[in-house]
Each structure stands twice: as C-alpha cells, then as structure tokens.
Amino acid sequence: RLDDCRRLSSLIANFNAIGIDSPWGAGKTFLVNYFCSTEEVRKSYEIIRIPALSYNYDEYDYLILGEIDSILNAKHIFSHDVINLRKLILESPLMVFLYKLFFGWRADSAIADFESIKTKVDLLDKKILIIFEDIERADIPSIQKIFSIGDRLAGDKIKVIYEYAGDKLDAKGINREYRNKYIYADMYLTSLSFKTLLNMYWHPLEMDKVKLRNRINLKEELFNMVYITNQRFVLSGNKHIYNRNIKFYPVRWFEHFLQEVKSYLQINPDVDQMELQVAIRMLFVKNTNFTLYDKFYGLKKLDELFTFKDLDGKELSLYEIISRKLEIESEL
Length: 332
What we know:
The protein has about 325 residues and is an alpha/beta fold. It contains 17 helices and 10 strands. It has helices spanning about 1-15, 30-35, 40-45, 60-75, 80-90, 95-105, 115-120, 140-155, 165-170, 175-180, 195-200, 220-225, 250-265, 275-290, 290-295, 300-305, 320-330, and strands spanning about 15-20, 45-50, 125-135, 160-165, 185-190, 225-230, 230-235, 245, 305-310, 315. The strands form 3 sheets. It has a 5-stranded parallel sheet, with helices on both faces. Strands 6-7-8 form a 3-stranded antiparallel sheet, with no helix packed on it. Strand 6 and strand 7 form a beta hairpin.
C-alpha cells in the first residue's frame, strides 16, 4: 500500500478535503492508520477521528468542535466559542430554550462561529486532520451534516478525509454529483493480492511465533494454497470443487482468516501436513463463502451435504442421483 500512501499524501497536501472510495473491507482504515502513523504526518498534523456510527446526528458539531478545543487548550489557546457552546449544552437547558426562542426552533444549537474556530487553529504549529470513517453507514441526514461540517471547517490548516463506499452512498441518493460539492479530489485503493496481504500481516499478527512440531513451513503452505487461473481464485488441489470468482481480498477479512489459522494451530500444534492443508482451506472457505461452509456439519451424511437440481428444479443428493441412474440402466 506504499503507492496508495504516497497518493494520499500528495492529495492531502494539495486539496483541503478528499475522499477515499472503496468497498467495505478493502482497507480504507488500514491505509489511513498507516498514513497517520508515518513520521511526516505525526510531525505535521493533529489527528481527529470521527467514526460515523458512534454518534447521533445532533452530536457531530459538539464532538468535532470539542476535539478541536482540546487540541487548542493543550497548546494554551482558548476558544470562547467552544467553551460557551459546551456550557450552553451541558450546563444550562434554559439557555438552549432561550437560544431556540430567539433564533428559531429549527436552528442548530451549535452556535460556535466556525470561522472564529479556524482563526484559532491558525495559531497552532501543526495542521489538523479530521477523518470521517465509514460515513456510508450513517443515515442520510447524518451524512449530509458530516459533509456540511467538513465543508465549513476545511481549509489550509484543517484538512478533511472522508472514508466511504461510493456504491453504498449512491444507493442512499448521495451520488457523485452531490459528493463533488464537498470533496475536492477522491482516490480508489489498489487491489492487494493474497500473497501481498500474507506478507503484510505476517509479522503484525506474529504468525512466525506459531510453532508446529512436524517442522511444517506454515507460510509456504499458505502461499501455495491459492493460485489464479482465468482471472479466478482457486484452492490448490481442489479446483474441481471450489472455483470462486473473488474480485479482491478484503483486508479486514484476511486479518480474521489469519487470526483463525493462528488460533487453530496454537490449539493443534501436532497436525501433519495433510491436516494442516485441510484446516486452512476450510477456514478459507468459511471466510469467503459461509453458505458453503455452513453445509459442513456432522448431522448429515457426506452425500447429503451437497445437493443437485434436476431439470424440474428438484434437489437431489448424490446418493439419489446414483440410485436413479442405476434404475434407468436396469430398465434398458
């Protein structure tokens, strides 16, 4: 993801608000976390993260302004707008009543002057980077409010990153034309191969600490588990029973897959090579096709696990198909 990180760095340097558009699980948060951990970013930015589902519609103003206020206070810069806002909301319901009485019941009670806040931020040595995570998961009014707040704050000293799945926003009516009013540039993540993800997570998940007593090379077994043919991902040795079109490996899924492999092998360090191959392939199927994996349970005979449909759409087990075949042959 170094190329993606360089692109992100270039975009955030040249635009005040950018979007990262990719499907769920493709690694948006992973990329942003890595980007924020780099020395260059840590020296240049104060980071504010806003998970979209963690707050209600009417909390975003107070939350973001409160986070900025905390950064300002840490540098002995005090914003009376934010302080008054906190007092208004937390200490005096009567003031909320009076505010709405004079300014309208539909008025936003977040009365802090955004331009005044931005002026205070200009006094900081660092810039502020606000990251809105997974905004497509919020409801439509909340998404619109997030964009509105981000637009009011974005500037030379406050940069904004929106993380989202564009297809999910499109489905909610927040289409590209709408988003372009608030997002000055967007980027898409490059797909990562199975082997790239394996290398990327190997040391962070401490996979090298998994000790197998039969001197099996776990990483090599995982490397050889999947190969590509005709743009399809196939489990080695199982191409006739499992050939699934996987467009990309979600980063979040891959992490879970390796964690399950690690957990299984910590409990079963005596597995031989064949047992290991079966285990990791079963966990692969579990994470890529749970409907198929769910068929593997001990209450059914092996021939009943997978059924086939005849021309009339009736489901038949392998045993029933063979029995019917033998009946037909006996009649000839």
